[in-house]
TrEMBL record:
Residue span, TFIIS-type domain: 72-113
Protein name, as recorded: DNA-directed RNA polymerase subunit
One annotated GO biological process: transcription-coupled nucleotide-excision repair
Protein species of origin: Canavalia gladiata (Sword bean)
Subunit structure: Component of the RNA polymerase II, IV and V complexes. Interacts with NRPD1.
Keywords for this protein: DNA-directed RNA polymerase, Metal-binding, Nucleus, Transcription, Zinc, Zinc-finger
CDD domains linked: Zn-ribbon_RPB9 (cd10508)
Xref: PROSITE patterns: ZF_TFIIS_2
């Protein structure tokens, strides 16, 4: 994994730079003329890890998402609220999609499948 590199002369951050003639990656200082050959061609890696708690939080917040479609033709079985957002999600272990409803009552957040 790549980490920040610092200039050996002035301690500023080194930035990736392409040497087109030699076809190689360098790290160059933006303050002085120091350059060094990169030991790895990976400049940046973005790893995203979601915990189960985070996924639950994201699902709870979908009721406030103005881009999701809403319906007033269903009632929540928990609080009897008459509005829900809905979206499709893959069905675990099966082919196809499932329609998921989320109650728009801010104190409820109940979810159910069609």
């Amino acid at each position: 994994m790549s980490t920040l590199k610092f200039c050996g002369r002035c301690n500023n951050v080194l930035y990736p730079k392409e040497d087109k003639e030699r076809r190689m990656l360098l790290y160059a200082c933006g303050n002085c003329d120091h350059e060094e050959i990169a030991d790895n061609n990976i400049v940046y890696r973005n790893k995203v890890h979601h915990s189960d708690r985070r996924r639950t939080q994201e699902l709870e917040n979908v009721a406030a998402d103005p881009t999701l479609p809403r319906t007033k033709s269903v009632r929540c079985s928990q609080c009897n609220h008459g509005e829900a957002v809905f979206f499709q999600a893959p069905t675990k272990g099966e082919e196809g999609m499932t329609l998921i409803f989320v109650c728009c009552n801010p104190t409820c957040g109940n979810r159910w499948r069609d």
